[in-house]
Recover the amino acids of this structure.
C-alpha cells in the first residue's frame, strides 16, 4: 500500500492508503523524494479553486524512478534521457498539450493555454491508479508527461524549485521587450524593477533579476522576515507594506527612480489590491506583469485612465511552456543565490495539513514534505 495526503474537500486533509499501482507500458512510477507546498495548494485548501475533490495535492516535486514501463522512454517527453530505474528526475506538472485544440493549432508557442492538459496535484484521485499528486510516497507518471533527468550536482533541496523557478523565469521573460532594451522598453540591464510580494515566487524572481542585470530592485511585502530574505536574494530596497502607507511606498519608489516610477513591476503577491498598486507604481511607458493570481481571490477597483495615460503594457503570466524547465534547471546549476536557504521547514507526509496552514507566517518561506 502507498500512503498519500488526500484533500477530500476544502479545509480537510486525510492520510489514506492506496494500492501500489501496476505500471502501464508507457508510464513510470516515482518515489517522491521532496515535494514543495505551493501557494496554489493553500488556495485549493481554502476553497479558492474549482478542484474536483478528492485530490492528492503536490506539483512541485522531485523523485527517483522505481518502475519504468517498456515503452516509457518512447512515449514520455524525456529531456536528458533515456531513463532507467534509479534516475533522479523532476516532472513538469502539466502533461503534453493535445495538439488538436484551437490553442494548440493557432498559438502553438503557448502550450500552457491548451485546455486539455492534465496537471499533477490537481487531478481527482478517486479512480486507479490514484497517485497523481506529490503529497504521496509515490507518483504515477502517465506517458503523456514531460520528465527531466537531473544532473547529479542538483540536490533534491534545489530540484524541488524547478516548477516555481520556471514560473518566475517566465514572468521575467514576459517583461522583456520585443526589441532592443536600450530604447527604454521593458526589462533589461540596469532597469529599475519593483517586485510586489516575496513569497517563494517573488524571492525567486528577485534572484533572477539580480543575476540578469537589473539595476535597482525594490521589494514590497508585509513580512519583515521575507523582506530580509529578499535582501539576501539581491533586493536593493525593501518596503514593509504593513508599516508604511501606499502613498509612502509610492514616494519611496519615485525617489529611487528619478521621480518617474519603476520600469517594470512584477506582481507576485496574488492579492487584488496589489495589482492596483502595481499600476500606480509603474512609470509611463512601463510594464506590469501579473503572475500572482493563479486562483481568484476577488476583484479590486482600478482606474483605466492610468493605464491609458501611462501608455503602459500589462502582461498576464500563466504557468509556462513545458520546455521552461530546461532553463530552470540551468539556472539552478549556475546560480550564486542561496536558494537552498529558502527551504525553511521540512515536514513528514502526516504533517501536510500543518504545512498548508503555516504558509504566510513569519519565517516561513518554502515548506517541503519528505514522504
Amino acid at each position: 500500500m502507498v500512503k498519500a495526503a488526500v484533500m477530500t474537500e476544502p479545509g480537510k486533509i486525510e492520510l489514506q492508503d492506496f494500492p501500489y499501482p501496476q505500471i502501464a507500458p508507457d508510464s513510470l512510477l516515482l518515489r517522491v523524494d521532496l515535494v514543495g507546498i505551493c501557494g496554489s495548494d493553500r488556495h485549493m485548501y481554502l476553497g479558492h479553486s474549482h478542484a474536483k475533490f478528492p485530490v492528492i495535492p503536490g506539483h512541485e516535486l522531485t523523485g527517483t524512478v522505481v518502475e519504468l514501463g517498456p515503452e516509457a522512454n518512447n512515449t514520455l517527453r524525456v529531456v536528458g534521457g533515456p531513463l532507467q530505474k534509479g534516475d533522479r528526475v523532476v516532472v513538469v506538472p502539466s502533461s503534453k498539450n493535445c495538439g488538436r485544440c484551437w490553442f494548440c493549432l493557432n498559438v502553438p508557442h503557448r502550450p500552457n493555454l491548451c485546455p486539455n492538459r492534465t496537471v499533477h496535484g490537481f487531478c481527482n484521485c478517486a479512480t486507479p491508479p490514484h497517485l497523481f499528486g506529490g503529497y504521496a510516497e509515490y507518483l504515477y507518471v502517465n506517458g503523456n508527461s514531460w520528465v527531466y533527468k537531473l544532473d547529479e550536482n542538483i540536490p533534491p533541496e534545489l530540484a524541488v524549485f524547478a516548477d516555481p523557478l520556471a514560473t518566475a523565469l517566465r514572468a521575467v521573460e514576459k517583461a522583456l521587450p520585443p526589441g532592443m532594451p536600450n530604447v527604454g522598453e521593458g526589462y533589461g540591464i540596469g532597469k529599475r524593477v519593483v517586485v510586489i510580494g516575496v513569497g517563494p515566487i517573488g524571492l525567486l524572481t528577485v534572484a533572477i533579476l539580480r543575476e540578469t542585470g537589473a539595476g535597482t530592485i525594490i521589494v514590497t511585502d508585509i513580512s519583515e522576515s521575507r523582506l530580509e530574505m529578499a535582501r539576501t536574494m539581491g533586493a536593493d530596497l525593501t518596503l514593509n507594506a504593513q508599516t508604511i502607507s501606499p502613498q509612502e511606498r509610492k514616494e519611496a519608489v519615485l525617489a529611487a527612480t528619478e521621480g518617474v516610477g519603476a520600469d517594470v513591476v512584477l506582481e507576485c503577491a496574488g492579492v487584488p489590491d496589489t495589482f492596483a498598486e502595481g499600476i500606480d507604481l509603474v512609470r509611463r511607458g512601463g510594464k506590469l506583469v501579473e503572475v500572482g493570481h493563479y486562483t481568484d481571490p476577488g476583484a479590486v477597483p482600478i482606474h483605466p485612465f492610468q493605464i491609458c495615460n501611462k501608455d503602459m503594457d500589462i502582461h498576464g503570466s500563466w504557468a509556462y511552456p513545458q520546455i521552461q524547465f530546461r532553463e530552470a534547471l540551468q539556472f539552478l546549476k549556475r546560480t550564486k543565490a542561496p536558494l537552498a536557504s529558502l527551504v525553511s521547514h521540512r515536514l513528514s507526509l502526516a504533517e501536510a495539513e500543518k504545512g498548508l496552514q503555516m504558509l504566510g507566517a513569519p519565517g516561513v518561506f518554502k515548506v517541503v514534505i519528505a514522504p
Notes: Residues 5 and 15 are 5 Å apart (CA to CA). The domain at 2-150+338-369 is CATH 3.90.180.10 (Quinone Oxidoreductase; Chain A, domain 1). The chain has a mean pLDDT of 95. The first strand starts at residue 2 and ends at 9.
